[in-house]
Amino acid sequence: xxxxxxxxxxxxxxxxxxxxxxxxxxxxxxQGDLHVVAEADNAADAYGAFKTHxxxxxxxxxxxxxxxxxxAIRNIRARSPxxxxxxxxxxxxxxxxxxxxxxxxxxxxTKSSAPSAVVNAIRGVARGxxxxxxxxxxxxxxxxxxxxSVLDQLGERxxxxxxxxxxxxxxxxxxxxxxxxxxxxxxxxxxxxxxxGARTDAQLVRLAASCGLTRI
Amino acid sequence: xxxxxxxxxxxxxxxxxxxxxxxxxxxxxxQGDLHVVAEADNAADAYGAFKTHxxxxxxxxxxxxxxxxxxAIRNIRARSPxxxxxxxxxxxxxxxxxxxxxxxxxxxxTKSSAPSAVVNAIRGVARGxxxxxxxxxxxxxxxxxxxxSVLDQLGERxxxxxxxxxxxxxxxxxxxxxxxxxxxxxxxxxxxxxxxGARTDAQLVRLAASCGLTRI
DNA sequence: TCCGGCTTGGGAAATTTGCCCGAGCTGCAA
DNA sequence: TTGCAGCTCGGGCAAATTTCCCAAGCCGGA
Lengths: 216, 216
What we know:
Two copies of one chain form a homodimer.
Chain A: H1 4-7, E1 9-14, H2 18-29, E2 34-40, H3 43-53, E3 57-60, H4 69-79, E4 85-89, H5 94-103, E5 107-110, H6 115-126, E6 131-132, H7 134-145, H8 156-166, H9 171-178, H10 182-196, H11 201-210
Parallel strand pairs in A: 1-2, 1-3, 3-4, 4-5, 5-6
Helix pairs in contact in A: 3-4, 8-10, 8-11, 9-10
Chain A binds a DNA duplex through helix 8 and helix 10.
C-alpha cells in the first residue's frame, strides 16, 4: 500500500455517471494530497480496478444499476479486508448507513456535504478512521434514540414480503412464491403497515425504497 | 447578454448537491470558454441568481427537493423568454424530456453522457440551438415510434392524482386537496391503473417514480 | 353541429382491509 | 424444566375499497 504521508492518498472513484466522476476527480485532485488512480462505473468493474490499483480509499456511490452497492462493498472487503471504502451517496437513511457500515464501509458521506467535509472524510478513512458527514451523524444519533430503524422491527418474513410487494408483486404472486396462503400474505401486509406506520401502500413502497430494500 | 464569441459562455449551475456543483464547475471551467458565474441549490434561488447574473446558459438538475424543476424552468422562461436552459439529470424518461422541452428547456443531457457531450451541449444551447445527448435522442426516437409513453395517455387530472398518490397521500387527502369526492378519486385511481396497465399500487408508485413524477 | 375526450360522480358486486383470534414453533432465561 | 416471548401461519367477519358500468356536463376540433 502506498505511504500516505509521503505520496498522498490514492483514490478509486466508483460512480455510474462519467461527468460526475470527472467532477469529483477534479475536486479531489485540486487538494494536492488526493490522487484519483482509477474509476469504475459499476460494481463489477470496481473490484477489478481495486485489485489492479490497490488504492488507499475507494469512494463509491452505492446507488448504481446492476448489483447493489452494498454487494460491491462486501465483495471488495471479503477479498481485501484492508480496503477502505467511503460511501458517497445522496441517500441519508439510517438503515442504509448501518447496512453500509455492516457491509464493511469505513465512511459514509452524503452529497449534500460541503466539499471540504468530503475530502476530510477521505483523509480520515485513509488514516483508518471511521468517517461520516455531520448529517449522517445526526441521522444515526436520531436513529439510536428512536430505538432502531423502521426495518429493525420487522421479522425476516415481513421484510421478504415487503420487498416483493414493493417490487410490484401481487398478493397472489407473493403467496405462490413463498408457499403461503393469500390470507397470510394479506395479514403480513397489514402487519407491516401497522408496524411501520405507513398509511397507504404507496408509503410502504417509498419506505422500502428509501431503506434500500428495493430500487426503483 | 454577454458576447459569446468574445467573452465565452457564462453558466448558472443549479443542483442541490454542493460537491456536485463544484465538480461541474471545475469540469466546465477547464474548458476555457465556459465560466460558471453563479450557483443555486434550489428552484427558488435559481431565478434570483438568473436575474442577478443573466447567464448565457442555465445548467439545471431538475430532480431537486421543493418545487419541481419543471416549475423552475417555466418560472424562468415566463419572466425571461431569452433564457437558455440546459436540463442535466440522471433521468432519461421520454415523458420527462418532452415535459422539459415543453416547459421551455433548450437542451436535455443525462449524467451518463460523456463530459465532452455535456460541454458541447452547453455551447450548442448558448448558440440558440436545441441540444440533447445521444441517449436522449434515442429515447425520444423510440418514444415517437412506440406511440407515446405511459404518461402521455393520462390527462392532467390523472397525472396530478397519480403524483399525489405515489407521494403517499391517502384517497381522502387527495380528495380534500383537489376538492373532489372520494369516489371520484377512487375512480381516477382505477382508471390510472387501467390505462397504465399497473396491477398493483406498488407498480403505480414505481411507474410514477421512474417517470420522474415523484422522487423517493 | 356532432363527435370524442376529459372531468365528475353514482351504483353494485367482488375483493381486500382491519383487526381479532388461536396454534405451532423456537430460543432464551429463570 | 418450565414458562414466556416472539415469529410464523392462517381463519373469521364486518367495514372499506376496488372494480367495473353508466351518465351528464363541458370543451375543442372536424
